[in-house]
Amino acid sequence: MDTFDLIIIGGGPSGYAAAMRGIDYGKRVCLIERDKIGGAGVYDGALSSKTLWEVANRVASINDAIVQEGRDPYEISWESVQKTVNEAKLERKLQYSMHLKLLQDTTTNQLLWVERGQASFVSAHEVKIVHEGGEKIIWGEHIILATGSRPRHLPHYEIDERSILTSDGIEHIEDYPESLVIVGAGVIGCEYATIFANLGKTKVYLIDRQSRILPGEDEDISVLVAKNLESRGVTIHHNATLERMEVVDGEVEYELSYPDTTRQTIRVKKALLSIGRVPNVEGLNLEAIGVTLTDRGLIEVDDTQTKIPHIYAVGDVSGGISLVNMGEIEARHAVEKIFGNIQNRLNIDNVCTIMFLQPEVALVGMNEQQCVEKNIPIKVVKIDFSLIARAIAMRKTQGFFKIIVTNDEEMRILGMRACGEHASTAIQGVGLLIKMNQPIEVLSELIHPHPSIVEGIQECVRMLLNKSIFKSNVFRDKLACYSLVDGVKTNLETGIQCVI
Ligand SMILES: Cc1cc2nc3c(=O)[nH]c(=O)nc-3n(C[C@H](O)[C@H](O)[C@H](O)COP(=O)(O)OP(=O)(O)OC[C@H]3O[C@@H](n4cnc5c(N)ncnc54)[C@H](O)[C@@H]3O)c2cc1C
Ligand SMILES: NC(=O)c1ccc[n+]([C@@H]2O[C@H](COP(=O)([O-])OP(=O)(O)OC[C@H]3O[C@@H](n4cnc5c(N)ncnc54)[C@H](O)[C@@H]3O)[C@@H](O)[C@H]2O)c1
C-alpha cells in the first residue's frame, strides 16, 4: 500500500493550496480529485462567472456610451460569450495540469502524487480511491478534507439544468434566454442578475424573500445595487415567497405570494436557483471514523481540525466563509499546523471579498448592521465617489467608501465597504491596516498617487481626524461622519441625534 505524509481529498482551490503547502515542507503528498482540478474555483464558479461578468460589464459600458450618441446597441452572441469563458477556463486548466505534471516528475525527489477518483475512508488512516479502471487503498499520516460544496436544491422542484438551473448549469445554456427568473437574492443571484442585465438580451426577474436584496450587507449597498439592476430592466420581487415553480410547455411558470396575501403567476423561459450551497460530505464514510458534522451538515472543525486529531477539513465543506481566498488560507493554515507546529489560531478579521455587481462592491471586516447587532459603539465615515478626482475623470462617479472605526480615541478600523470603480483594489490597503493593527493616522499621512480612487479612503480617514480637504458641513449630501452608540445616531458635524 502506498503511504503518504499527507492525503488531501478534493482538488478545488482549498485542496490545491493544501497540496502545495505540503510539498513546501518536503512531505509526501497525495491529492485526490474525482472530477476537475480547480473545482468551483474555476468551473461553474469563481473564474467562469467572473469572466462572464467582465464580458457583460464591457458590453454594458460600450452600450452606455454608444446609446447616448443615438447609435444602435452593440450585441455579442452567446456563442462568443461562452468562447471567452471557455478560453479563461482552459488557460487556468493548462496552468494547473502543467504545474502538477512537472511537480510529479519522477526523476527528481518526487513529493506530489495526483490520483483521479472518488475517495472515501476505509479507516481513520486509510483512503479508498474508486475510478473507472478500478480501485486502490492508500495510507496517510494526516488527511485533509477539501471536498467543497454544490448548489442547494429546493425540495419538490426538479432541477433538470435545462429549464430550471443552478450555477452548475447556467453557463452551459445554448443561447441567451429571452427571460430568466432568479430565485435567491444573495451573492450568486445578484451576480447573475447583473451579468444577464448587462448583456442586455434577457429580461431578468429576481425573487427576494426579504425586503431588500443582499440582506447581509448594509442598506446603502442593497439600495444602490437594486437601483442599478432596475435601471437595466430587472424586476425585483421583494418580500416574495416562491409558492410554485414548474416546467410547463418547455417554459418555467412560477407563482409568488406576498405578505398582503396577493399572488402573482409569471412565465419565463428559464429559472436559476441560487439559494446557497451544501457541503459535499456524502459517501466519504465519515461516520465510520468519527468525523462529526454540524447542525448545518458541515464538517465540524475547531480551527480547521476535526474531532479526529490527524484529520482536518478546509474550505466550503467546513463552512466558514465560502470563498476561494478563505479556502486557500484555511488550507495553508491546516498544513502549517500539521507540519510547521504553529500555535496561533487562524485570524480572519481582514478577509477581503468582492461582489461582482453593478458597481463592484468590496468588503473587509464588519459592516454597520453587524456592529449594531453586536452593540459595538462605532464611528462611521462616508465619502461619495463624486468627490474623488479619479472618479470624476473616469466619468464614473457612482459609489462610496464607508469606513467603520471604534468609537474611542484609538479609532481602530473594524471594517470598510467600497462600492464603485476600483473597489476591489481599494479594499486591500485597509485590509492590511487591520491585519497590521495600525492606526488610521498611517493612511492619513501616506502620500497617495493622484488621481486615484484610494484618495477617497484617505479623505475618509482625514475626516475622522478633523483634517479633511473637503468639509462635511459644506458637502452634506456627499460626506457623512456619524457615531452609532446604543441605538442613537449622532452626526459628528452638527451634533444632531436620531434614534435608529
Ligand atoms: C457561481 C459562483 C461564483 C463564485 N464566485 C466567487 C468569487 O468571485 N470569489 C470567491 O472567492 N469565491 C467565489 N465562489 C466560491 C468559491 O468558488 C468556493 O468558495 C471555492 O471554490 C471553494 O473551494 P473548495 O476547494 O473548498 O471546494 P470546491 O471548489 O467545491 O472543490 C472541491 C473539489 O473536491 C472534489 N471532490 C468532492 N468530493 C470528492 C471525493 N469524495 N473524492 C474526490 N474528490 C472530491 C470536487 O470534485 C471538487 O473539485 C463562487 C462560487 C460559485 C458557485
Ligand atoms: N463574489 C463572491 O465572492 C462570490 C460570488 C458567488 C458566490 N460566492 C459564495 O457562494 C456562496 C453561495 O452563494 P449564494 O448566493 O447561493 O448563497 P447566499 O447565502 O449568499 O444567498 C442565498 C439567498 O437565497 C435566499 N433564499 C434561500 N432560500 C430561499 C427560498 N426558498 N426562496 C427565495 N430565496 C431564498 C436567502 O435569503 C439568501 O438571500 C456565498 O455564500 C459566497 O460565499 C461568493
TrEMBL record:
One Gene Ontology term of the molecular function aspect: flavin adenine dinucleotide binding
GO CC field: oxoglutarate dehydrogenase complex
Superkingdom of source: Bacteria
Cofactor(s) the protein needs: FAD
SUPFAM superfamilies xrefs: FAD/NAD(P)-binding domain, FAD/NAD-linked reductases, dimerisation (C-terminal) domain
Ligand binding (FAD): 50, 147-149, 316
Amino acids binding NAD(+): 184-191, 276
Domain (FAD/NAD(P)-binding) ranges: 4-326
Any one of the GO BP annotations: 2-oxoglutarate metabolic process
Start and end residues of each Pyridine nucleotide-disulphide oxidoreductase dimerisation domain: 353-459
Annotated keywords: FAD, Flavoprotein, NAD, Nucleotide-binding, Oxidoreductase
Details of cofactor binding: Binds 1 FAD per subunit.
Keyword Ion transport set for record: no
Pfam annotation, one family: Pyr_redox_2
Any coiled-coil regions, as ranges: none
Active site positions: 450 (proton acceptor)
Membership in a protein family: Belongs to the class-I pyridine nucleotide-disulfide oxidoreductase family.
Protein name: NAD(P)/FAD-dependent oxidoreductase
